[in-house]
Specification:
The complex is a heterodimer of chains A (110) and B (113). Chain A is an all-beta fold. In chain A, 0% of the residues lie in helices and 55% in strands. Chain B has 113 residues and is mainly β. The chains are: A mainly beta (110), B mainly beta (113). At the A-B interface, strand 4 and strand 5 of A face strand 5 and strand 10 of B.
């Protein structure tokens, strides 16, 4: 069993839809949770970062962490074609090593 | 704002050839990492360094060597390239504090024929 599981998709939604991206994990030592966005032929760029259970909002993006269920989510409101990318969840504990999900490919159609 | 710069961006090699991928960061980060990204497998850590002159193995180190002679540079070497090493390679860096994220370069696309 992988430490981090992420549905690879692809996920296709119409412009303006609410998108929900999810990851589950098995290691209870994970304390820091990140979402990276990766455009085609580019490196991952940090989108959201949180280290506690609960919600963190940044514009149209909301990151949610539920440590009791070992489940994290990224919500995108009013999705735009420019949001089309691969979204990678990542997490780490005190070892500092980052463990990535497989990535979910999102396409937002105009 | 260069951040993390990788060279070259693209390379084609023949089986058995050697090459070195260069990563440079201008953020004064202590930690640097090399990952490979393959379809269905995600990002996997090859080697990493927690400071100048130090290196350590990651999840998939076989067939690769690394060196960190200068704080700002991290080199990844393939001594005898194999088709299984065809991949996209990403370098990343971070401050080293466990609560700080990693910052990535734009990758090197490597094809081994």
């Amino acid at each position: 069993q992988k430490e981090v599981e992420q549905d690879p998709g692809p996920l296709s939604v119409p412009e303006g839809a609410i998108v929900s991206l999810n990851c589950t994990y098995s290691n209870s030592a994970f304390q820091y949770f990140m979402w990276y966005r990766q455009y085609s032929r580019k490196g991952p760029e940090l989108l959201m970062y949180t280290y506690s259970s609960g919600n963190k909002e940044d514009g149209r993006f909301t990151a949610q962490v539920d440590k009791s269920s070992k489940y994290i989510s990224l919500f995108i409101r009013d999705s735009q074609p420019s949001d089309s990318a691969t979204y990678l969840c990542a997490m780490k504990g005190n070892t500092g090593k980052l463990i990535f999900g497989q990535g979910t490919t999102l396409q937002v159609k105009p | 704002n260069a951040g993390v710069t990788q060279t070259p961006k693209f390379r084609v090699l023949k089986t058995g050839q050697s090459m070195t991928l260069l990563c440079a960061q201008d953020m004064n980060h202590e930690y640097m990492y090399w990952y490979r990204q393959d379809p269905g497998l995600g990002l996997r850590l090859i080697h990493y360094s927690v400071g100048e002159g130090t290196t350590a193995k990651g999840e998939v180190p076989d067939g690769y060597n690394v060196s960190r002679l200068k704080k700002q540079n991290f080199l990844l070497g393939l001594e005898s390239a194999a088709p299984s090493q065809t991949s996209v390679y990403f370098c990343a860096s971070s401050t080293g504090y466990s609560n700080q994220p990693q910052h990535f370069g734009d990758g090197t696309r490597l094809s081994i024929l």
